[in-house]
Amino acid sequence: MADHIRVLTGALAQIPYSSSAKILVRVDGAGATHDLLRHLEALNTARRTVRYTVGWKIGEAEEQAMAKLPETAWEISLHQDGTLQDGYAVA
């Protein structure tokens, strides 16, 4: 996890100040740790908004596993601010 934060810090340092007010960071499943996401949240300031996406491509194995879940396992997903994200679900 420390490696991810070090690489992220180095990447963000290369962004010109004039372009750093709104930043989107994409993290794949291997980098998606609670510590990294807390670090990303902590980067938000009054002058900078940092948003992120976390995920990976859903393959055949994931599709098969999801098909086995009962309908009651699914709930509407949330936006980063905690509001409901209609049309998307999590289990």
Element layout with pairings:
Layout: H1 2-13, E1 22-28, H2 34-42, E2 49-55, H3 60-67, E3 75-78, E4 84-90
Parallel strand pairs: 1-2
Antiparallel strand pairs: 3-4
Describe the structure.
With 91 residues, the protein is an alpha+beta fold. The chain has three helices and four strands. The strands form two sheets. Strands 1-2 form a two-stranded parallel sheet. Strands 3-4 form a two-stranded antiparallel ribbon.
Strand content: 25-35%
Oligomer: single chain
Number of strands: 4
Give the strand order, joined by hyphens, for the main sheet: 1-2
Radius of gyration: 16 Å
Uncertain segments: none
N-end to C-end Cα span = 25 Å
Précis, in short:
This protein has 91 residues and is an alpha+beta fold.
Key traits:
91 residues
